[in-house]
Structure formats: structure tokens, C-alpha cells
Structure prediction request, 207 residues.
Amino acid sequence: MKRVTDLCVSAIGVLLLAIPLALVVLAIRLESPGPVFFRQVRVGRNGSRFRVWKLRTMTETRVDPDSPDSLRSKDPRITRVGRVLRRFGVDELPQLLNVILGQMSLVGPRPTLAYQVKEYNAFQRRRLEARPGITSLAVVSGRNALPWVKRIEMDVWYIDQWSLALDLRILLLTLWKVLITREGLYGAGGINPDLEGKPKRGPAGRR
Prediction:
């Protein structure tokens, strides 16, 4: 049922957003040279690799896409168009294609980088039991303002407690948090590190 819901909602979303996204693509193309889309290898369900789609919001990307990096709220690499896209989460919308392809879900743990997975303990690796999502419980509970360990705990809790009703609640909260309050867009001090140190322990002190 979750997969059927993902397919139906994503297909409708792609159709409804086709024209607005075409205008966004034009704005990105006019402002700065480079590709319109940013594609990066992420780790999905059961450790499978796939390329996630996003609208490009920066003038350049890190040299090694799998390496740790941090992003600041006033990072000079973020374009003017990109700043608006990031503020309202529009840059994530192309991931509807990842959902249609079965690589992602509308709701689930956010897709992670390979170097992050290498640091997981046994408990934290459980977040790979579900397809990664465009939004998640962690996104609507504080987003980047939450420590990584807390985000992963929420991801595992979501997997254990999953229901369609929970997915619907998270989707509705996402609209409120991303479009209205925009809470947690950046972490402490306006910085978004890819990984705040090494995630060391799960809730019960497991490694």
C-alpha cells in the first residue's frame, strides 16, 4: 500500500508541478552556468546505491561528492535562485522521479552518503531497512537543528511504528514546517555539516 501511494501521489505531483518546475529550470539556467540538476550517489534501502535528483542551488559542488562537507546559511556558493529554492524545499522536488523509479519513498529516512554509513553502528544501520524518503519524521521534528544521533533514532522509530496514517501526518507537517515555519533549515550557528562528528551510540548504548 505504501508503494501504491508513493506511485499515485508522485505521478500526480509530477503532472501538477511540470510547468512551475519548467520556470524554475529556466531561472537556474539564466542565473549561472552549469547543469540544472545536481545528481549524487546516495545509499538507499539495504545499502543499495542510487543517484538522487535535486535542482542545482549552488555555483559549484564539492570536488569529491562522497566526502564530508559543511554548508553555511550564507555560503557564497549558493545562488540567489538557489537560496529561494532551498528556503522552500523546492530543490528536493525532482526526487519525485526517484520515488517513481522505486529508489525512494515520499516518507522515510533521508538518503545518506556512503561515508556516513561507514560510521554507523548496528542500531544505526537499521535506518537502511526502509526506502529513503523525500521527507521524514526527523525533518518535521527539527530537521538540521537536531543532532545526527537523534535524527537516526527517529528514523528507526519510524520504521518500527510505520503506518499510512503516520505517513500522512508527516506529509501534512512537512507542508507546514517547510513552507510556513521553515524551522531547522540550518543547524547551530547557521551551519549544516554532513555529519556532526561520528555517530557513536544508539539509544541503549549499542555500538
About this structure: Residues 19 and 90 are 14 Å apart (CA to CA). Residues 2-193 form one domain. The two ends are 34 Å apart (CA to CA). The longest strand covers residues 37-43.
